[in-house]
Amino acid sequence: MSTNKILVIDVDPVIRSGICSFLVAQGHNVAEAANSYDAQLQFERFRPDAAILDFSFPNGDALQLLQRIRNVDSNVPVIVLTGQNSPELAVRAIQEGAEQFLVKPVDLSALHAALLRAMTNRRNRQPSQASISHAKRECVDPFLGNSPAIRQLEALAKRVLKSESPVLLQGETGSGKGVLANWMHRHGPRAEKAFLDLNCAGLSRELLESELFGHAKGAFTSAVSAKQGLLEVADHGTVFLDEIGDIDLQVQPKLLKVLEERVFRRVGDVHDKAVDIRLISATHSELLDLVQQQRFREDLYYRVNTVPLRVPPLRERTEDIPMLVQHFLNRSSQDCGREEVMVDKSAMDALQQYSWPGNIRELRNVLERAVLIAEHNHLTAQHLQFQNSIHTGQSPLRSVTGTLKQMECAYINLVLQDEGGSVERSAHRLGIPRSSLYNKMKRFEIPPGTGRI
Prior knowledge:
By secondary structure, the chain is α/β, with parallel strands linked by helices. Helix content is 45%, strand content 13%. It folds into 4 domains: 5-137, Response regulator (Rossmann fold), CATH 3.40.50.2300; 148-310, Rossmann fold, CATH 3.40.50; 315-386, Helicase, Ruva Protein, domain 3 (Orthogonal Bundle), CATH 1.10.8; 395-453, Orthogonal Bundle (Arc Repressor Mutant, subunit A).
């Protein structure tokens, strides 16, 4: 008996039931969905080998659904059904990645033959399992969900996808700015070229210059040979600078020269080098505030902020949490070699009521930890371990009195203790760069290693 898994997406319950019954009789494992939201959930949960998609959705979002399916796994063949015999519609569907386009009423035997042929073609061109696993992990869909906030972000990102203008991604730590930057590169005109990223937080001026521009032999004591910088390696590709607000003021005019004149100079060199890159930068800070504080150049701000995109925090898109939960549980169970893991109502309620200060990154960590500690493939609220009581309604600082400075010092001490002295994790929790946390620790005379067990 065949183990092929087929997902049938059709708004008409009669047609959907008929197709499902026929495919089950042919020995296939079948799941069904009647709308875009259920289709995306089923696609994440069921992981089909092929999908049948009704292109006649009343709200007209079938094309968007096809795009999202292809974003999650471009290897899954999709057979499109429609009630219109339109060559233009067929071309559009094929361009968006549909394997075949069939007009209703469809002959079920012909549909079955098309499915088998599509799945055979998929297996013939399929790379090794290790390559598939790596590709799926890398090809993360940054628009997973149906909330108005994430749909608006998707629409804006696609509108500027083919542009060469610099993009500034604004959003809280862990909200998915890096994932979006990677997606924009993979779907843009530079997809075949390099994508290189650098987190600028906490980097000294010397190290940042060397990483970005490279250095000539003998530029400084330890420069025993010439080194290519990130910009040079990424020529004709995309450079993603995370936490761009932390770039040293002396480095900022050199970056501005790259954006305006498309040239740079290695540290210690005397010759300019031409470079062609698209810059995508990200920050969780308000760059305009940094401009007013004279910590960020105004001319560079207007250059990197040509196309601003705001990535919403998870608390503004709680309706997307069930779909995100299913996505991360699928990944975690696959990594652990376990069967499908399900979440009960108590756990889902807890997940949707939590404030998620660490956003999607924190959600992923909470679920991965829950899968590891759960004895069975059924998660309850008891398996969920949130970061600490600071974000769950309790107020451990209520007993602290004094000035704002004393309160801030006490809070930083508390977070450092909760994180076992890790400055990196504490900075993520506090929503500030590591360099800022180091400065605060120095100002409040908090010794390094505070809270370390």
